[in-house]
Amino acid sequence: MVAPVTSLARSGLGDWVVQRLTAVLLAGYVLFMVAWLFAHAPLDYDQWRDLFAHTWMRVFSLLALLSLCAHAWIGLWTLSGDYLNERALGRKALLVRFLFQMFCGAALFGYGVWGIQILWEL
Length: 122
Fold this sequence. Notes:
mainly alpha; 3 helical TM bundles of succinate and fumarate reductases
């Protein structure tokens, strides 16, 4: 069994709740963006820049970005625990799972930092 050391909420129920809350926030963000894009078609750069000039939109986008990272981490951690196990890979399963999780964690961290830099023009 995989120890919950690398899970986000430190428990299965906590991870489940985080996964559902982040999914709801992401769905709200996508619905808002689709509606906004339809309402402002044809879209030009100035309209797009004006939308993201508002602090509330940057905060909403930051919440969506962090939710995406948390949602992806829980999903990938669960996937690695379910499919990168001793039954599938033998004795090298722990190393493969560790490397997979470190790669995913580093990628999500990098994407998160990059997204913050883009949103806040750092």
